[in-house]
Amino acid sequence: MFSDLGECLISAEQIQDKVRQMGAVISRDYQGKDLVVVGILKGSVLFLADLIRYITVPLSIDFVAVSSYGASTTSSGVVRILKDLEESIEGKHVLIVEDIIDTGLTLKYLLENLWARNPADVKVCVLLDKPERRKVDVKIHYQGFSIPDKFVVGYGLDYNEHYRNLPGVWTLKPEIYSK
Ligand code: IMP
Ligand code: MG
Questions:
Q1: Which fold has domain 13-148?
Q2: Residue 169 · residue 8 · CB < 8 Å
Q3: What is the DSSP string of 65-87?
Q4: Helix axes 45-53, 12-29, angle to 10 degrees
Q5: How far is the CA of 104 from the centre of ligand 1 (A)?
Q6: pTM of the model
Q7: Which residues surround ligand 2, an ion (CB under 5 A)?
Q8: Tell me: the pLDDT tens digits for 66-106?
């Protein structure tokens, strides 16, 4: 498995430092607000699990699953909800937690979809941002790292469902995904 990895782009320690800082800022911003942290399955699972341990205000968590790239590494532009939230977000302060923003299509769709349910607020928190790849404008309120246009795996991010369990973020050798 590890022979397919390129370089370690962000170490486990760097991620934990950043997530701790993000948790502190979010805790300050959401004082006294009814916070619902919405994770996008499956990529956000590790990030969300770590992030909420650094958030010191009361919160609930919920998840959505959206159609993604499948086995391919290029966006189809078509987004579909595969699993919806379990609780109503009406009047709530929603924080969407996502592993990475690439073209922005997933988050743009989800933002419009969630805003239509009359929440008090919807904000976006992403660990990784690939700004060079953006196709649509999406406001990111909390961002961990900006990374170059390379396909990455680890810390929740997969290639064909593999590598999600790596504690750091790694590039994949291009010959792996251009096959
Ligand atoms: P977007 O709709 O193009 O912004 O795509 C976001 C989704 O694409 C993320 O939730 C990831 O699941 C996936 N994705 C984008 N870039 C990568 C990558 O480098 N590695 C793994 N998954 C990625
Ligand atoms: Mg994803």
A1: Rossmann fold (3.40.50)
A2: yes
A3: EE---TT-SS--S---EEE--SS
A4: 60
A5: 9
A6: 0.94
A7: 43
A8: 986 554 545 556 788 999 999 999 999 999 999 999 999 99
